[in-house]
Amino acid sequence: MEFILNPYALTLILSSLLVGGLSLYIGLRLDDSVRWIAFTMLSISIWGLFYGVELTVQTVEDMLFWGRFEYIGLTLAPAGWLVFSLKYTGIDTKRKAWIYPSIFILPIVTYLIVLTNASHHLHYRSNWLITSGPFPVLGIEKGVWYPVLVIYCYFFYLLGTFLLWKRFQYANSHFKWQTRLLIFGGMFPLAVNIIYQISWFQPFDGLDMTPYAFLLTYILISAAILRFNLFNLKPIAREKILEVMTRGAIIFDHRGKIVDFNSAARNFWKDSNDLKIASSAKQIFASKPEILELLQKQEHEFLHCQLEIEGDVWEVKVEAVPISEANVITTGVLLLFENITTQVRTNEQLKKQTLELQQLNDLKDKFFSIISHDLKGPVFGVKELIHLTENGIVTEQEFLEMLPEISKNMEHVAILLENLLAWTSSQLRGEHVQPQDLDLNKLINSQKNLLDRIALKKSISLELQGFENLRANADKNMLELIIRNLISNAIKFSSPHSKVLITCEELEKRLKLCVQDFGIGISEENLQKLNAGISFTTRGQSNESGTGLGLLLVREYIMKSGGTLTIESALGEGTRFCVTIPKAKQTVLIS
Q1: CATH superfamily of this structure's domain 248-339
Q2: Which of these, 77, 136, 205, 577, has the minimum number of CB atoms within 10 Å of its CB?
Q3: Which parts pass through the membrane (predicted)?
């Protein structure tokens, strides 16, 4: 026989063991008149326990085997409830000794029919395995006796509940409260079972939620014990019921005073000594008026708030459950506190990662679409030109005449390829910053020399100002790429016969490096996109293509270096890009 645990089965098994243990404890300490409530709950715990075991096995035969034990509790619970109601209401049955034995005739007959079902199929006509849910569940085709069992259970529960209501409808407030809770305790599982029988609501096909409803019933009856000392139950059982709750629970009376709480509630306070019997809600929630307002509403509502606990901020779900008497006054409120920090942070992280992945994927698609065009055109053009020259179709003189244009295209391809490789490296394995002391004057001049050729082809001059005797503390490769991209971008959008001004200003702990062109400028809409880190492409003054990848890398590298990037522009006047980088602290210069 194979057993595979699942959350539904495990919850039911553990809860049933707890309920069964408490029922035995309670039964040993009650007098005969009300001991049958413990018998009823014990029967329910047997039902829940073996139903939980049934949910762990994998074959129809194994499920039917454990179902036989399950039906011990299922058939006896309604009879126990009726006997409890008769004894608790004090109905005289001394002259009718046959009443109590007769109550158990139908349960015994039903159980015998279940045990021998294989020979007559009166209870189950057929069985099969339902595998549509997260674990196998027993499927049933009801036999002729199945409705008899359902009617018997409903009748006994309704009859017992009616006796309770009839006996105490005019009793004092104390007994009214007890009776209303007991009536609800009898009716709620019945309602859940009706929903199950008509297949109106099930987490998945074949799962019976009735045992879970009975567990809730027992918790409600336990609440009556806590509030009214129901059945003179001793405090130790009450303590066990509260302590098994994982959520923090605090019970307030109608004056807003604490009448009880469990140990889990102490976890939600900086100083657990503030939480004590008779403390005022106004006192303990002085810094959290939203919780106080929730308590004062005296309605079943939920609230999400933040609590600072031991230097950490917890996301907390607070549930208010009013304890009230119909048409009179609210006698108290139960506040339940649940720490949902992990859940909230996980959800936020997942949303953030999903957005970042989507943006990165969109950016990747965009870049590779542009790159495939911008790389393919020049490279294939050179390939075709070489082929034509080799075959004599293009003369050597014609080839030499085309070289300047080919060279210009290859310059743009080289910059594009360098940016692509840098971006790919950054995305695949991350980019590690290795700061060092750099002679900024030597570094900027070497980059100027590399880009002078591109600038001269557009009759643009590159002017340097303020770089003498300045040292930076930065990653050499990153800083070179930043400078190259800013200067090449300025050349791209500069008008012919203009200049690009590259300046450096020494601040207190940083250096401010600016690249300014006097070209077409950037529109307000595109400037907002750039400041928001949104990549887009535009063509240069000489129809140069672009991908937007260069500025993306500049922004990323500046951020990793601990610097800042600012952009100023006006249409028709030009654009100024400024970055800040740390100044060197060492006296040693590394070029």
Answers
A1: PAS domain (3.30.450.20)
A2: 205
A3: 6-27, 34-53, 65-86, 98-118, 144-165, 177-200, 212-230
Within 10 angstroms of residue 102's Cβ, the number of other Cβ atoms is 11
Q: Which residues, in sequence order, are CB contacts of 578 under 8 Å at separation 6+?
A: 512, 513, 514, 515, 565, 566, 567, 568
DSSP calls for 407-455: HHHHHHHHHHHHHHHHHHHHHHH------EEEEHHHHHHHHHHHHHHHH
Residue position matching structure tokens 């929630």: 285
The DSSP bridge partners found for residue 439 are 471
List pLDDT tens digits, range 268-282. Answer: 877 766 777 777 888
| CATH class (in words) of the domain with range 432-591 | alpha beta
As a whole number of Å, the end-to-end CA separation of the chain is: 75
Which of helix, strand or coil describes residue 509? coil
Range from 178-192, 234-248, 553-567 that averages highest in pLDDT? 553-567
pLDDT bin (cut points 50, 70, 90) of residue 105 is very high
- The tokens for 225 are 């014990």
pTM above 0.70, yes or no: no
Contacts of 358 (CB under 8 A, 6+ apart): none
Euclidean distance between CA atoms 5 and 12, whole angstroms? 11
What one-character-per-residue DSSP string does 109-133 give? HHHHHHHTHHHH-SSEEEEEEE-SS
Rounded Cα distance, 290 and 306, in Å: 11
Q: 57 CB contacts (<8 Å, ≥6 apart)?
A: 1, 2, 3, 4, 63, 66, 136
Domain limits, the chain? 7-243, 248-339, 345-430, 432-591
pLDDT digits (tens, 9 = 90+) for 64-103: 999 899 999 989 988 988 888 887 776 656 667 788 889 8
